[in-house]
Amino acid sequence: MDATLGLPVLVILIAVALLFDFLNGLHDAANSIATIVSTRVLRPQYAVFWAAFFNFIAFLVFGLHVANTIGTGIIEPSVVDTTVIFAALIGAIVWNLITWGLGIPSSSSHALIGGLVGAGMAKAGISAAVWSGLSKTLLAIVLSPLVGFLLALLLVGIVSWLSVRSTPFAVDRAFRILQFASASLYSLGHGGNDAQKTMGIIAVLLYSQGHLGETFEIPFWVVLACQSAMALGTLMGGWRIVRTMGLRITKLTPMQGFCAETGGAVTLFMATYLGVPVSTTHTITGAIVGVGAARRLSAVRWNVASSIVYAWVITIPASAAVAALTYWAVQILR
């Protein structure tokens, strides 16, 4: 580890971490609001306030299992120093900005994990990785969209069967109301899983500098700061990605929006409870594809969905490469 650094440097690194959290909220705002906006249940400006509120209060509902996984379960805490944290954050931020600019809904979570792995391995080689935690996270890349897809598909079947004797107007009106609940649950799951990743980064930074004593824990001020940064980012919105998520993959009705959000929310709740840092982007995309496929396979624009999958595949290696280059550049400039 580095020797304990002065307060100004520590504050700057924490600010960079919170900047990532803000960009995470900005980048992933679409995950929370794309369906409710595309079904015209809420206007975009109101939807972001709705999502930001539930993003912020998520810490009241969930524990800090995901934060602990990020803090101690991706790379060895003994490898962590200020340069590793800085390089990891730069790797994640650069990839987030690239994909946000292109309107690609990639995973901020996996960008951060890739950044940690790239920076950690640049310092200490392959032994830096905690393979038990990392393999669980990599498995979630496949499982979270699949579970979201299957749950949304199942929900469409159940809801269609229950609504078979109702008029289309009555179904539409009912699910316009229910979508407020499903969007709230999804935003809650988003805030609970995603904001905790930055909490873990800041906490392991404080721990590496001796500010947490002998025991790794997440200070309450870190929890509040990260939830606030995430909510503020969501308020700023990510309109390029909203268009891709809510309009380009498949056309959604309020009933389908409800099923997609509920399927995604259940997936996030399970993952957060188990301490698995999943991608909210992967989860909601899988759920949206699921409700589209339930109508008919041709209802899904598979070319758009496939381009999103390509972005998923390269996110961890791309952010890891940027983080590793950043780490080596800092070492050379020292």
UniProtKB/TrEMBL annotation:
Pfam families: PHO4
Subcellular location: Membrane
Keywords on record: Membrane, Transmembrane, Transmembrane helix, Transport
Superkingdom, taxonomy of origin: Bacteria
A molecular-function term among this protein's GO annotations: phosphate transmembrane transporter activity
Membrane-topology annotation of the record: Multi-pass membrane protein
GO BP terms: phosphate ion transmembrane transport
Gene Ontology CC, one term: membrane
InterPro entries given in the database record: Phos_transporter
Transmembrane annotation, as ranges: 7-27, 47-67, 79-98, 110-131, 138-162, 218-242, 263-289, 309-330
Protein name: Low-affinity inorganic phosphate transporter 1
Organism: Bradyrhizobium ivorense
Lineage: Bacteria, Pseudomonadati, Pseudomonadota, Alphaproteobacteria, Hyphomicrobiales
Gene name for this UniProt entry: pitA_2
